[in-house]
Design brief:
six-stranded parallel beta sheet; alpha/beta; globular; 628 residues
Length: 628
């Protein structure tokens, strides 16, 4: 258990520090405690030099250990072992985000087939626009028929019959030519993931570079396929985000209300919970139980989805999920899938909190399972909310501690909202980039990792970039970090350089724009393509970069790789498990530049990372003939 004097080293936030101390007093084990128990980590695993893909092993490869240690039983050396492991790591991440997209696609198909009344189309204009973009003739088709036609087209993207995923047509022609030249054009979402598993089976692809190129193709199938489908279909079904005000941190919990936290990644469940919470008869039940009302708040990316579209407040990000329960004020955590620590069931068991899972692909022993489908979601949502109301009657007031006041934030910056603020065209942003008022654009995205001080790199990297007139786009867990630091409000323009501050004040926007959940990194890809196509450039020509400062997950590896393969220089705060191969490490840090015009950089220090990113942006600006 963390000592009191160590708590400040774990997180900079008052709400986190107070809850870590409370957990210590109450004997609740947290993620930092388990990390300490697991340290030191296996060096072979950290370097990607272990293999358990067949039962001739498991093998540990030591490239420097002489001939008896240099090869696995099958003869694989360190380079091949690292490439195989990394390829499967990326395939798992691409599968996760793309399967999220599939769930939304199945809901869209159910709407089109008339199989659900729980869900509908909130943005009919976007449905028509996407259909037209992808060559579907919409004239004479009803809204339902358009939904069915679009769903059918996207289902083709998940298979193996197409030559390329539909949204890859958004990429600049130069980028598509690069993909074709290196055999990286994403064909089918499931196809690329399955092929990666096939290639990395013993005795199939034994060329580490070939495996890495297919890893890029697999990642691209996620970025321009599964994730982009998830984003656009979410907008069609639940509404395209527009700027909205909200609040963030554990202070959004209400001592006198039933508190329900939604957690995971898909809006399919959380939107129904929100609808149920607003029903008058359910609110009446809450008042009968002694509560002043029902309060819903978000964790991680499900929270981001509701924040963007509905203005629902955010309680926290990945490293705050356990701490939110430790407040003693949470009646229910209801989850879908991804980034949900199994420990939450145990932490919930220390309080009166109900832990409810809803997906047939994500079950948690010790929790309550209520399976949600497109034809029963509203009924199940009502059932879950009433369960939370009942739990309120068993709350122990002596255990309740809500640690801080919430911070105000502005969210909802979809690409439509950004372009709308610019008058419907990217021209003003391109002009601001050319003039140097905005020197570059950086997406700061993703997770928290307990190996790094909570949110420290996110916030300090963003602040350093803003000083240098670099606009920041944020998604996922980075959103909460930026919000708690006060960077998601227009007033934060005072922390930016003179040029960026001028642009933000003219548009009335924050210098850090929240563009969605982790799956919505596809919005950033699309925006880069819009800018490049407008300026007659490739994405790799633009003064843009990406950063995952505190990443941990397979999804983040897929995101980082599809960013690089799309031409975006990408910073990571921690290295993936590839350091056991100098060949793969050199390819990632340098060699990919010769293939895709972009590569990775690894740096845990925020100031040093800002220097690396700024240097890249300077080089891109000078190459375009713009001022540095």
């Amino acid at each position: 258990m963390a000592k009191e004097r160590e708590i400040h080293d774990l997180s900079p936030w008052e709400d986190a520090q107070k809850m870590i101390a409370k957990a210590q007093r109450e004997g609740v084990t947290l993620i930092w405690d388990r990390l300490k128990d697991q340290t030191p980590h296996c060096t072979f695993c950290e370097q990607g030099l272990t293999c358990s893909k067949c039962v001739m092993g498991p093998c540990r490869i030591n490239p420097n250990g002489g001939p008896k240690k240099k090869y696995g039983v099958c003869g694989a050396d360190g380079d091949l072992t690292v490439a195989r492991n990394f390829g499967r790591f990326v395939a798992a991440g691409a599968s996760a985000h793309s399967d999220h997209g599939r769930d939304l696609l199945e809901t869209l198909a159910a709407i089109g087939d008339g199989k659900t009344t729980d869900y509908g189309i909130r943005d009919e204009a976007k449905l028509e626009r996407i259909c037209t973009e992808l060559g579907i003739e919409v004239e004479g088709l009803s809204v339902r028929e358009r939904a069915k036609a679009l769903a059918d087209l996207f289902f083709e993207d998940y298979g193996c019959r197409s030559h390329n995923v539909a949204f890859s047509g958004r990429a600049p022609q130069k980028r598509k030519d690069i993909w074709k030249r290196f055999g990286c054009t994403p064909r089918g979402i499931d196809r690329e993931c399955v092929e990666m598993l096939h290639r990395t089976h013993m005795g199939v692809d034994c060329d580490p570079v070939s495996i890495c190129l297919h890893a890029s193709r697999t990642a691209l199938a996620d970025g321009w396929g599964g994730s982009m489908i998830a984003t656009e279909v979410s907008d069609i079904i639940f509404g395209t985000p527009k700027p909205v005000k909200s609040m963030v941190n554990l202070g959004v919990l209400k001592e006198d209300q039933v508190n329900i936290l939604v957690h995971g990644h898909s809006p399919i469940v959380s939107e129904m919970i929100l609808a149920a919470v607003r029903e008058p008869e359910i609110l009446a039940k809450a008042r009968e139980a002694g509560a002043a009302g029902i309060n819903i708040a978000g964790l991680c990316c499900t929270g981001n989805e509701l924040l963007m579209r509905q203005g629902v407040p955010m309680a926290g990000n990945h490293l705050m999920t356990e701490l939110a329960i430790v407040t003693g004020a949470v009646e229910m955590v209801i989850v879908d899938y991804q980034c949900i620590m199994p420990s939450l069931v145990n932490v919930a068991g220390c309080y009166h909190t109900k832990f409810v899972s809803t997906s047939d692909k994500a079950k948690f022993p010790g929790g309550i399972h209520m399976e949600f489908h497109y034809n029963n979601a509203r009924e199940k949502a009502r059932e879950a909310v009433l369960m939370a109301v009942e739990a309120f009657t068993r709350r122990d007031p002596a255990k309740v501690e809500i640690p801080s006041k919430p911070m105000s934030i502005t969210s909802g910056f979809s690409n439509e909202a950004i372009l709308g603020a610019l008058g419907g065209t990217p021209e003003p942003l391109v002009q601001a980039l050319q003039a140097g008022k905005v020197r570059g654009v950086v997406g700061i995205v993703g997770c928290n990792n307990p190996k790094l001080k909570h949110d420290h790199v996110h916030v300090n990297l963003a602040k350093e970039l803003l000083k240098r007139d670099i606009l920041v786009l944020a998604t996922g867990c980075a959103t909460v970090a930026m919000g708690k630091a006060g960077l998601l409000e227009p007033e934060a323009a005072s922390q930016a350089g003179a040029g960026l501050a001028e642009v933000c004040r003219a548009l009335g926007i924050p210098p850090v724009l929240h563009v969605g959940s982790c799956v919505d990194n596809s919005r950033i890809l699309h925006l880069c393509a819009v800018l490049a196509n407008y300026a007659g450039l490739d994405i790799s020509d633009l003064p843009v970069a990406a950063s995952a400062p505190e990443w941990y997950s397979e999804k983040a590896a897929a995101i980082g790789l599809y960013a690089v393969a799309s031409g975006v220089y990408t910073h990571l705060g921690l290295p993936p498990h590839i350091l056991g191969s100098s060949m793969i490490t050199t390819l990632a840090l340098k060699g990919l530049d010769d293939v895709f015009g972009a590569c990775f950089a690894v740096e845990s220090g925020p100031l040093q990372a800002a220097e690396l990113i700024d240097g890249r942006i300077k080089a891109k600006r000078l190459a375009l003939g713009w001022s540095a």
